[in-house]
């Protein structure tokens, strides 16, 4: 399977090949109103006054409950590091197909995997997307080329992990749980971290193709960074909300759990390549994940989901086509 990037750069594409045509008509209602996406100042969790910290925890809870998505600012990850990361990712994709094929993973849990679409064995339509996946925790893995890329990835993952840990503690408290409840229950200090770099090359007919279709993510939360080109859309109140204007040096957070697991998608454009980096944070792969007993109302409905190993949940997601339905629906009781 040739990458989308190589097909675009061949100069032969004037239209979208039939296998990449995606029907968006059934779920393409774009919000016509200017939606205010929640923005969280992460620094207040650590350096704010007690009142400020209490307020930001409440804001996190509201954002998780109402949106399942929010923007974070003042997170402490240097903008220079983010820029270096984006440049390194672009350099990886700029290598020849032969160089990149060295990292073509065959299995879901291969340490490094380069490919296209989502799962070309089952995708009914192919997606306008090339990707590089790296399992960076508990054991760090990254491509050894281009030069210096692995070192940049390591530092970026270290700094972003610190941000994710701070957010998970805030989310835990917003649920009325002890600050480190989620961390301790799911052994997040030795948990898993999957970094996925997505490249969406310019598309000759963006209206008939899709970068990634409507779906939800796995893990506790996903931290997302992107270059200056918009493309992410999140579902809110039954309509798609484009995430076009986020503050400089900000991250986008997608959350899961009792809180809303937000449905989102990536659309493409005909002008330039878009790059996004999604980092999914989860428990160790063999940890059984189930609803916290403290959050289960036994008198009304009890637990809504069966416990499942995180590893098995990832297998379940990969074995099914990405669709608007959350993978959580497949473990619903």
TrEMBL record:
Record protein name field: Fe2OG dioxygenase domain-containing protein
Alphabetically ordered keywords of this record: Iron, Metal-binding, Oxidoreductase, Vitamin C
Coiled coil segments of this chain: none
SUPFAM superfamilies reported in the protein's UniProt record: Clavaminate synthase-like
One family name in Pfam for this protein: DIOX_N
Organism this protein belongs to: Carpinus fangiana
Segments forming domain Fe2OG dioxygenase: 190-283
Gene Ontology MF terms in the entry: L-ascorbic acid binding; metal ion binding; oxidoreductase activity
Entry's family note: Belongs to the iron/ascorbate-dependent oxidoreductase family.
Transmembrane stretches, start-end: none
């Amino acid at each position: 399977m040739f990458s989308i990037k190589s097909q675009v750069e061949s100069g032969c594409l004037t239209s979208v090949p039939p296998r990449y045509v995606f029907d968006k008509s059934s779920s393409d209602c774009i919000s016509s109103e200017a939606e205010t996406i929640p923005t969280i100042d992460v620094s207040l969790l650590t350096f704010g006054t007690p009142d400020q910290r209490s307020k930001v925890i409440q804001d996190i809870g509201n954002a998780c409950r109402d949106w399942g998505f929010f923007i974070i600012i003042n997170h402490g990850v240097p903008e220079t590091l983010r820029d270096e990361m984006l440049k390194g990712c672009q350099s990886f994709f700029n290598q020849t197909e032969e160089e990149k094929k060295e990292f073509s993973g065959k299995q879901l849990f291969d340490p490094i995997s380069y490919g296209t679409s989502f799962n070309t064995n089952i995708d009914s339509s192919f997606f306008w997307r090339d990707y590089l996946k790296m399992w960076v925790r508990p054991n760090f893995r990254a491509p050894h080329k281009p030069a210096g890329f692995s070192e940049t990835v390591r530092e970026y993952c270290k700094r972003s992990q610190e941000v994710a840990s701070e957010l998970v503690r805030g989310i835990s408290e917003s649920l009325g749980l002890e600050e480190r409840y989620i961390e301790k229950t799911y052994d997040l200090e030795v948990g898993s971290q999957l970094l996925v770099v997505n490249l969406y090359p310019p598309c000759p007919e963006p209206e008939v193709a899709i970068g990634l279709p409507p779906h939800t993510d796995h893990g506790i939360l996903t931290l997302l960074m992107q270059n200056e080109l918009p493309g992410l859309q999140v579902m809110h109140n039954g309509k798609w909300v484009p995430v076009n204007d986020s503050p400089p040096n900000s991250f986008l957070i997608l959350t899961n759990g009792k809180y809303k697991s937000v449905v989102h998608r990536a659309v493409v454009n005909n002008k330039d390549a878009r790059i996004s980096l999604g980092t999914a944070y989860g428990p160790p792969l063999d940890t059984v994940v189930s609803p916290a007993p403290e959050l289960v109302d036994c008198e009304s409905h009890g637990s809504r989901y069966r416990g499942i190993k995180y590893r098995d949940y990832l297998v379940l997601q990969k074995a099914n086509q990405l669709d608007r339905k959350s993978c959580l629906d497949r473990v619903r009781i």
